[in-house]
Design brief:
alpha/beta, single chain, 7 strands
Length: 199
């Protein structure tokens, strides 16, 4: 999985179609196979954002149960929580514009949950990062939506894209959590798994 890990855990599968998560795993020096499968992603709308992300990450893990015996399966979910609203992926252009308008000039929290599953063993954690948007005008919001296709992103934006460069004033927490994969937490989990496999 990585030459840096002193003990190798089983082969890693990224259970996600996300190109951003795949990019981050590659930058971490991890060998992995990317496999995408559909899950319903149902959640109780009364749950707080961290619990929604965790519930969906566990649901995603369940659809890979047939692979988990011989592999470590990594699943993740990211949600944007603004006040008590959970912002998932926008349905269309109008929805994306409305989401970013609601975040403009405001703080919100991005929650990303990650699960590692191997056989009957599972380890899951959730990380949260607070993000403060500058006050964006309509031209800026429409430019972003029309040029960066934010329809596969929670909250209708990607912090690594144009809007993150010009529109985000502050973050409190881990930048990579906002991208969709808390990499330091994941590295710690993988080291703990490697140690578990060694014993």
């Amino acid at each position: 999985m990585s030459t840096v890990l002193t003990t190798q855990p089983p082969p890693l599968i990224l259970g996600s179609a996300s190109p951003r998560r795949a990019e981050l795993l590659s930058r971490m020096g991890l060998d992995f196979q990317q496999v995408a499968r559909h899950s319903d992603e149902q959640f109780d709308p009364g749950l707080p954002g961290d619990q929604v992300a965790m519930a969906i990450a566990r649901q995603k893990a369940a659809v890979f149960s047939d692979l988990a015996a011989d592999h470590v399966v990594l699943t993740a979910d990211t949600v944007v929580a603004s006040d008590t609203r959970i912002l998932g992926k926008p349905r269309n252009r109008a929805d994306a514009i409305a989401m970013i308008e609601s975040l403009s000039g405001q703080w919100h929290t991005v929650w990303t949950a990650i699960c590692l599953t191997h056989g009957d063993w599972q380890d899951c954690h959730t990380e949260g990062t607070r993000v403060k948007f500058a006050l964006l005008d309509g031209v800026e919001i429409e430019h972003y939506v029309d040029t960066h296709e934010p329809f596969d992103k929670a909250g209708a934006y990607g912090i690594q894209e144009w809007i993150g460069l010009v529109g985000i004033e502050r973050i409190e927490g881990d930048y990579h959590t906002v991208m969709g994969l808390p990499t330091q937490r994941l590295w710690t989990m993988l080291k703990q798994l490697a140690e578990r496999e060694r014993r």
